[in-house]
Inverse folding.
């Protein structure tokens, strides 16, 4: 479907410069986490229409990545089944956000933050406990060797 080159962060250090050169690593390759690469692939697949899909299933590594979650949310009509930690804070409606810029180790970083919360966020656990049982239904992700994985 798609492929992207993942290099561990140590490959971008000065200690690995010779190895990158020997392996003919492209100069334009930048450090990206696997969730960031997956987000780029989902965006590209959706934009190009090469692979029509209605569901995306991902584990907790991707559920902790704002880049990946934003990419999935941008896919109108796609249902995401993504594992997130139980203490993840959430809102029933997206609050207004703004960008916060900071510098760390000489590198400028931009992070999206809640502008001014109009309501207090809930943990995923609290939200789940507040929903009636009629709001839940089981989805089978795949058939495993010991029965369906739900």
């Amino acid at each position: 479907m798609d492929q992207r080159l993942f290099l561990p962060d140590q490959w971008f250090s000065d200690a690995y410069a010779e190895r990158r050169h020997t392996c003919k690593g492209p100069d334009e390759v930048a450090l990206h986490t696997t969730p960031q690469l997956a987000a780029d692939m989902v965006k590209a697949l959706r934009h190009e229409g090469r692979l029509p899909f209605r569901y995306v299933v991902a584990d907790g590594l991707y559920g902790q990545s704002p880049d990946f979650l934003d990419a999935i949310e941008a896919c109108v009509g796609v249902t995401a089944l993504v594992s997130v930690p139980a203490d993840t804070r959430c809102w029933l409606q997206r609050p207004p956000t703004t960008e916060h810029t900071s510098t760390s180790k000489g590198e400028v970083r931009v992070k999206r933050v809640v502008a001014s919360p109009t309501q207090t966020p809930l943990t995923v656990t609290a939200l789940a406990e507040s929903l009636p049982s009629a709001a839940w239904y089981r989805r089978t992700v795949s058939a495993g060797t010991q029965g369906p994985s739900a």
Q: What stands out?
A: Residues 88-131 form one domain. The two ends are 25 Å apart (CA to CA). Residues 34-48 form the longest helix (15 residues). The chain has five helices and eight strands.
